[in-house]
Amino acid sequence: MSVVATPSRGISDCKWNRSAGAHNKIHMRAVVTGGGGYCGYKLGCALANIGASVVLCDIHKPMWLIPNGVAWIQTDIRDYNAILAACEGADCVFHVASYGMSGTEQLHKEEIESVNINGTRFILNACKQQNIPRLIYTSSVNVVFGGLPIEDGDEESLQYFPIDKLVDHYSRTKSIAEQMILAANGSPLAGGGILHTCVLRPPGIYGPEEQRHLPRLAKIIERRLLSFKFGDPTVKMNWIHVENFVQAHILAAEALTPEKSYIASGQVYFIHDGEKSNLFEWLTPLFERLGCSKPWIRIPTSFVYASATFMEHLHSILRPFVDLPPLLTRNEVQNISVTHTFRIDKARTQLGYHPLKYDFADSVDHYIKSRPQPSNYYLFLNILLTLIVTLVLFFLSLRLDSLSALHFFKERRHGPA
């Protein structure tokens, strides 16, 4: 285990936007798991800016500058002794770390389970052993969404989607981990006192320098692999800007204190920007900045779902030799083609959450200006390889048994058993 509090490569704006919520200076030692990633890093910077001493725990070093008041400890979430040491003396833990959210990672089941379930178990045990009274868990809307429409769902009316009906291991493990966090609320600490926990459920996250969704979407669009669209044009979903994500987490930590009457203790909150949009319309600025036409060809969702099913099977067969990234997974097809929107009234009322308005186009502009430009030769090879793979998948998927498509519609017509 190593501790680093010196600048890293890259530059990122770490200033906390105080207009996103009134926060007085605080004095606490906060541990942020997944602190080497975009959201964890931004949260750590914001906490430091309001007076907290922050430890970022991650197996990878942040790619941005590490500011004063923030230290990075190289920590594997699957190593209990390392977690225990990193949490020593902490007042609050933000458990942001996870694995398997999108792309190829979604298909790495062993890694997903070891990080999302075992890692969460280690965090809970460390909090109890190190007498840490507050734990905020970053969950996902996918614990309640499994491909059936949800319009303005709330925390009280929505039940967990049956785990055996979820099509991806990430959502399954996040559901299990979330329930572990809530079950631990009220647990006694080793030195006396009580553990107070709460859960935040964000949708997809965006913002300047976001490294997961935007770069992947840009590559897919530039390779002309998103020249089609699918799903009903009225389908809506929510997104959350990283600054609103940060605001909600800091407010949740405050709501687990006696000053706030522990109002968030044992509670779950949906958080997002307060808006809903169709994915293909929301991506308009990205198509425009990349100089690509918006998709106008609409193909059946059943075909896309069947193709995603085939690509997942192909990935599992080829993984011992090559980690072939699927264009889309079944979970991603569901997220794009089925409405799932949520109310944030509870977060507004109990936490004082007030999301600020952000424009996705600003994040796109930042990405376009800062991304490295590939050579023409590399770009040509990349496009050629992608085209070949796509054509092979297309023709093979035509031979896929129609049961995948029938299953897709059957699940959505009748719902989970």
TrEMBL record:
Keywords noted in UniProt: NAD, Oxidoreductase
Pfam families reported for this sequence: 3Beta_HSD
InterPro entries for the chain: 3Beta_OHSteriod_DH/Estase, Lipid_A_modif_metabolic_enz, NAD(P)-bd_dom_sf
Gene Ontology biological process: steroid biosynthetic process
Molecular function GO labels: oxidoreductase activity, acting on the CH-OH group of donors, NAD or NADP as acceptor
Entry superkingdom: Eukaryota
Family, as annotated: Belongs to the 3-beta-HSD family.
Protein name as catalogued: Uncharacterized protein
Source species of the chain: Corvus moneduloides (New Caledonian crow)
Encoding gene, per UniProt annotation: LOC116452151
